[in-house]
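[scheduler] slot 2 assigned
[scheduler] job type: sequence-to-structure, two independent chains
[scheduler] chain ordering preserved from manifest
[runner] begin chain α
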Amino acid sequence: MMMKIADAWRTIDAKVEFAGASESFAEGAADTAIEAAQRALGVELPPEFVASYRVHDGQQTGVEFLFGPYRLWCLEEVVENHRALLASGCDSGEQLVGFADNGGNSTVAIRLAEGEDYGAVIELMEDGEEPLADSMRAFLSSLAERLETGELLWSTDAGGFETLADREEAEKYAAQQAAWETARAGPTAASIRELPPGTETELTGTRYGAVERDIVRFATFDGRVKLRGSLKGAGFNQPIRVRIRVGPRPKFGLGSPVYEILSWEPIEPE
């Protein structure tokens, strides 16, 4: 069920206060400020948009992304950024008014063109636009629900709320980096070059390139070696630990020996 503007903001405010940033959102805009903004913009803003700004006129300070994953602009920024949009020659500039951003190249805007999508909220990106909600009320209601259900989570590192999908992706990346750090600390190609034939040892690194017959190319952090056997199931750029046996040296001492694969396992972050 869609929340009223005031109810949605109460939920958002509660989450922001929980995050310890309750002073970030400004007080609501006065009617005189809203009227001045509409004159400067040369448009009449949708009633739900106005109702939202009567609750909070943007964020006071800092660049924390407390409006979900966005930073809410004050009316002065709305006017200033709209003028910049018009000056840029954007074809749809007169039909849109931005009111938030993600700190990068995306702006959240409300559509002003008369028609079925009047008042719709969209995200403007360098390569196009994406609809976010049919109205400001629907946008705020969805945002409040996502905060309430935990789909949006507070991140101290990000300085704001982030989506659950973004957090999971960040955690996956951190785990991969930790695995690589573990791999870097393991035995390398240089450490096995002088070992006598028949010696069993370990290598850490990743497979690369195509398999030639039963020869697998393997990259460590200080070089590359050839392994005989199978690393089936090991992905490219996946850090793994391989148990090997040193093969006989080539005749006349030219080149490196081929190392026999005994077993392998993925490297898990410690």
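[runner] end chain α
[runner] begin chain β
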Amino acid sequence: MDNAGTKNETIIQVKHLDKVFGEEVKNQVLFDLNFEIKRGEFLSLIGPSGSGKSTLMNILGALERSTAGEVIVNGKNINNLNDKDLAEFRNQYLGFIFQFHYLFPEFTALENVLIPYYIKDFSRKPEIINKANKLLSLVELEGFENRKINKLSGGQQQRVAIARSFINDPQIILADEPTGALDTKTSRAIMTLMRKYNEETGATFIIVTHDREIASGTQRIVELVDGKIHKDFLPSEIGEATAWEELERHACVDCDTMKQQKQVKKDENFGKNKNDCKTCP
């Protein structure tokens, strides 16, 4: 798809979005969400476990339907689409990057990159093969095209997954913890690749992350707490120092994990540190 739209035009509009799970016992996880995302934005979505991040990502990615409200993408209310049209919408407009890759180990890197294209057109056109090779080169995997997935490192596998997400020229890339299973150096390299693609193509990125360093490298940060938008800010507008203060206070820190890692003591002092999460149960 052509991503060369107007930078200030809205590509995603969410109106009064609710999500409730269950029939007899109802569990509401998203509450009256209202926000817009501009074309070409490089946005991170943060929040503690159970805040609704993954549910919201699934709804934006047309993998799950909302209970109430509207999700309008490129002027189209995707809640009105049937299952077949939703599948076509995902393949045409969206690219997905997941923490655990979901690659086919019996296929090569090149074959994995081509899978989203083959869903809509199984012909092995020379131009699409060339495009897949160029994408592997873009993610610095030139020479690995015919390597089986299980012969690649975790970082290399994630690069294949990123190249795969680009193959249909999506207007929107949804990345759910794309660096969650990677070391710091590899995580930074993956972020650089995604940012480069964003700048070169104008594709919109929505990145779910618990990593404050990853979030600080995005243009806009949206924080969910208990299914509601808690913060929504642009680091460039409030300044780097203030942005880091906001991230230091954000509710993404998992208290139990911090305790297990002995980052804070299991005593009466827990909660006095500004990094301690005040919203985790």
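[runner] end chain β
[qc] chain β: The beta strands are 10-21, 27-38, 42-46, 68-73, 76-77, 94-98, 172-176, 204-208, 220-225, 228-233.
[scheduler] slot 2 released
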